[in-house]
Design brief:
Structural class: alpha+beta
Number of helices: 4
CATH class of the largest domain: Alpha Beta
Shape: elongated
CATH architecture of the largest domain: 2-Layer Sandwich
Largest sheet: 4 strands, antiparallel
Helix content: 25-40%
Number of strands: 7
Radius of gyration: 28 Å
Distance between the termini: 16 Å
CATH superfamily of the largest domain: Protein of unknown function (DUF541), domain 1
Order of helices and strands: HEEHEEHEHEE
CATH topology of the largest domain: Translation Initiation Factor IF3
Strand content: 35-45%
Length: 231
């Protein structure tokens, strides 16, 4: 026990050298701990990356065909309730379709045009229907789907509270092991971020043509707290 106490206190006494918040020459004893907290929340919006890929004998033909199909997709998305502010062109490209790579003289055999759209769907229960409608009207590329929260702050605040409690529990454990008591908080800082969605099949949109699983989002927070130590 004495060896552990000496280790904890010597670590705490060394921290002022690396803590910018402590004044130079300050001999007070303190301890810095990191607490983490995680909370779950059901998503209330989805983001799709869909697009149209077309081919043509010339670049102009490929682009013209692509533009016509993309306009039809946008019109169907609008009719499905997706607002103009929730649609954004994220990538537009035209590339030659090279053939004959195994020969000494590869040639261009037409052109490929691609137009990718980032779509935000705020009515989550319509995600499958929106995707089905877009594909029916010409969208033939899907580069992924993510779920999120329109306002993540309430869930993140819950994670922050859990992180502070975790930091306090760690600090009390270390202080007790060293034979000292915690004093007031000297500094605190935090960071928070969402994590990958976890599939929960009970949330599947069963009525939509394309089955979509919303799942739950894990949101995490981390806090670093410095406490003063007292005898």
């Amino acid at each position: 026990m004495r060896a552990l106490s000496a280790l904890v206190l010597s670590t705490a006494l060394a921290l002022p050298l690396a803590a910018p918040a402590m004044a130079e020459g300050d001999t007070s004893r303190f301890i810095t701990v990191t607490g983490t907290g995680t909370t779950q929340a059901a998503p209330d919006m989805a983001t799709l990356m869909i697009g149209v890929t077309t081919q043509g004998a010339t670049a102009a033909e490929a682009l013209a065909a692509n533009s016509k199909a993309t306009e039809a997709v946008i019109a169907r998305l609008t009719a499905s309730g997706v607002a103009a502010r929730d649609m954004q062109t994220s990538n537009l490209s035209i590339n030659p379709n090279w053939t004959g790579y195994d020969s000494a003289t590869p040639t261009i055999s037409g052109y490929v045009a691609s137009n990718m759209l980032t779509i935000r769907i705020r009515a989550l229960d319509t995600t499958g229907a929106v995707l089905d409608a877009a594909v029916a009207d010409g969208a033939n590329t899907l580069n992924g789907m993510t779920f999120g929260l329109a306002d993540p702050e309430p869930a993140l605040n819950e994670a922050r509270r859990d992180a502070v409690e975790d930091a306090r529990a760690k600090a009390e454990l270390l202080a007790a092991a060293a034979g000292v008591k915690l004093g007031p908080v000297l500094s605190i800082s935090d960071s928070a971020s969402p994590m990958d969605p976890m599939p929960m099949y009970r949330d599947a949109v069963a009525a939509s043509p394309v089955p979509v699983v919303g799942g739950e989002l894990d949101l995490s927070a981390s806090v670093q707290v410095t406490y003063e130590l007292a005898d």
